[in-house]
Amino acid sequence: MTAPHEQLTTRDEEAIDVNTPSTWWRSTALIGGRWRECPQTCDVENPATGEVVGRAAVATAADADDAVVAAQAAGQVWAASTAAQRAAALGQLAERLRGRRDELVAATVAEVGAPVTVAEQSHVDLAIEIIDSFARIAAETPLREQVGNSILVRRPAGVVAAITPWNYPIYQLAAKVGAALAAGCTVVVKPAELTPLGTYLFCDAVLDTDLPAGAVNLVPGRGSVIGPALIEHPGVAVVSFTGSTTVGRQVGAQAGRLVKRACLELGGKSASVVLGDADLDAAVRGTVAAAMLNTGQTCSAWTRLLVPRARYEEAVALAAECADALVVGDPTSRGTDLGPLASKAQLIAVRTMVDDAVARGARVAAGGTAPVKGLAGGHFHRPTVLADVDRGDPITRDEVFGPVLVVESHDGDDEAVALANATEYGLAGAVWSADEERAVDVALRMDTGQVDVNGAPFNPLAPFGGWKASGLGRELGRIGFDECVEWTAVQI
Ligand code: NAD
User: Fold this and answer.
1) Model confidence over 254-269: pLDDT tens digits?
2) Check: CATH 3.40.605.10 for 14-266+470-491?
3) Is the CATH number 3.40.309.10 carried by domain 270-460?
4) What is the pLDDT of residues 200-256, one digit of tens each?
5) Which residues does ligand 1 sit against, CB inside 6 Å?
6) Among 45, 120, 265, 483, the one annotated catalytic
7) Could you give the CA distance from residue 263 to residue 335 in angstroms, rounded to a whole number?
8) 265 is known as an active-site residue
9) How far is the CA of 442 from the centre of ligand 1 (A)?
């Protein structure tokens, strides 16, 4: 039988239009509320086709310096704003983003390769929801509290350098900009080289609000140039970085040397733990869906499925069936489940990790590294399920960042917890059980930042971030807001 992902999707009637509009051809940085022309630019490619769909500026370290100075100047005004003013401006920003939803979705499909339904729900709508949530947090969080004979005051930390990755560019931007503006901070944004277009559109929306000029500045360009320029700048108080653990370690070391706060959201290798009494069907289906979301390019993806030994073969067969049923193809089509990976380099990295695991003895239960038929030109990879890997094999420990799920067996709750914790990461996870108390007990023995019981939904008010090599600090909600706050205690 031909798996649906070999039947391909062609552009269907409901497919969205990603013909490149003029707003995707940029050559500017945004500094102090004005667009500044940059002599150098780079092309932005559609990973589904390889076509150039837009262009972005390659700003310099000097542009980054000027952006920080502009953010400091705007900070003089914004730090003095009231909670109500911050809430109103964020509410206005959410409105402006809502007005640009279609543009933001199209840019996300075109530059990330995210399937349109994923771009809508998990990228753009979630980003707008997060900005809305920070409007509420700005309104509700007390800026002064009395503790004994102290007045504790939440004060804006200063300029936040927001460095974002390519996998969820708009969502990550919203998490960083929302928290910073809510706390009275101003921002300099550095998007990933692969995905600057949505960030430009987000900044267009910012310029359409009453926020002071320079509250949000944009310096697209090379991470190795703009990143260090921002981190080293004495005017930057907080570095909010999302990306790989490798670069995160450098960012943390650089910030640490300067005794500067670094909030690091890094990689993951999260386990979905199925306990003996769980509904196996729901657990496997939920895990495959989470592992493959955004074509597996999700830091918090559950990429390890840990099932009771007695049900191992059943779980492998079911996971393979779910993966085979996913449609890989044109991300503009509403019938598509998985688009391309974001770049050729990412495709090669994923293929290499899968091929290496197979060479060490892994069984390919679904997918594999053969090209997806009919999809030449794009960076497509089949949804893949691997089984029969050795305990501690690199594929059970290292982040793949592609549509690859590994199924492992366990001999009870204690071993499942030990296996789940046996990675250097600790970002997310799942527990499945008919007994909620037992599931929560297991969840609380997992050394990880977020655990979902029985497929519970994502909560944008809960702190998001990792233990161990998955990072430092948290984003979202009140705790994310506090990453942009400095405290002063006044004793009376
Ligand atoms: P990356 O580390 O290559 O790049 C992230 C950002 O850092 C980009 O904007 C890049 O230009 C910039 N950068 C590169 N070199 C830099 C330097 N020396 N100093 C400062 N900035 C620099 O990561 P990526 O490949 O864009 O993203 C994928 C990774 O991000 C994955 O490992 C994924 O798990 C992780 N991620 C984590 C989270 C989370 O919340 N924990 C969310 C999304 C992605």
Assistant:
1) 999 999 999 999 999 9
2) yes
3) yes
4) 999 999 999 999 999 999 999 999 999 999 999 999 999 999 999 999 999 999 999
5) 163-168, 190, 192-193, 223-224, 227-228, 242-244, 247, 250-251, 265-268, 299, 399, 401, 427, 466, 471
6) 265
7) 37
8) yes
9) 30
